[in-house]
Amino acid sequence: MSDAPAVTAPPTLGQKLTAEAIGTFVLVLFGVGTAVITQGEDYAAVGLAFGIAIIAMVYAFGRVSGGHFNPAVSIGAALGGRIAWREAGAYMGAQVGGALVGGLLLVLMFVLGDTGLEFGDDRFGANFFGDRGGFALGGALVIEIVMTFVFVLVILAVTDTRNEHPALAPLAIGLTLAAVHFASMGATGTSVNPARSLSTVFFSGGDAMVQIWLFILGPLVGAAIAGLSYPALFGHGAEPVVGSGMNFGGGRGGSPTAPGYGTPDAYQQQWNQQVPGYPQAQQAPVAQAPWGQQSAPAQQGGQQGWPDPNAGATQAVPAQQAAPAQPQKIVQDGWEWDPAAQQWIPEQKAPQQSWPDAGGERTQIRPPDGQ
């Protein structure tokens, strides 16, 4: 039986989008469902429902997609250098799709459950402002921007590769979302998530449709501010991903792990993707001189004198030339990234050096006489 470690294939884009759709579906089903049942009057129940749902889904699918479940989070991640814009756009489509399915199922359950709610009812958890209750337009817009900014900033912080407690990240995210609901439900019904706001608006009254723009614009603006602010204030824990931030092209970044910190876990890897199709790019080991060789002293002031055993004099040896830089070799679980082909291939291992064989006997290299 081979002792070689099993090679784990990285998540495909299809698997990531499936995880995002399921996670957003569950978030709507639990969070908005609780808001409909309580008619938004029990802030604690609604806030905890959203918070617990996000904790469960991030623990379940964070290793697959990172667990965004929110277009605003994907925008913040893209601007923060954590995910490419192309993939962020696909994430947002999957999130809205999962939210709409969750909203439709939720409405069907209440309509078929003879609860007195019908299609077009304004009590299906739609967000609100102005004459529909809560804050006026200006205040509602500001609170959605500020609350989303805080939420996305926390997410970027706890998923940073420099965070040494990644296992607690989903808990911190869920508790922050619960606190956001406690603070803003009376003002707007709390969105901070355009997919959540879109989930039931098409099944609610016309007034909800008229006001939906604010609950798309506000969260996206708040997320954009957070995505730009976090790396500006605290730096990047990893090189920005290709096609993220304000950069839509260029070469692949370097090591995803900041010096002095441990290897990211699977959840942090998905939040700090470095190679298309795989979350983690590892540094190649530092090359060392072959066994038995010693590095020459640093060359200072021109030439270095070395003893000549034959002439008994000092022979000048030219200063060593620096070897050309070699491209970084990226290896993960038995697979190697081929930068030319832009794909993963089985790891290419260099052949091992062996002693010359003369008549079945090993040849021993002796130093010159006199040494």
TrEMBL record:
Residue ranges, compositional bias (Low complexity): 277-328
Keyword Transmembrane recorded: yes
InterPro entries on file: Aquaporin-like, Aquaporin_transptr, MIP, MIP_CS
Disordered, as annotated region: 277-371
One Pfam match: MIP
Transmembrane segments: 17-36, 43-62, 92-113, 133-156, 168-188, 208-230
Topological category with respect to the lipid bilayer: Multi-pass membrane protein
Compartments where located: Cell membrane
PROSITE patterns, A to Z: MIP (PS00221)
Family to which the UniProt record says this protein belongs: Belongs to the MIP/aquaporin (TC 1.A.8) family.
Name used for this protein in its record: MIP family channel protein
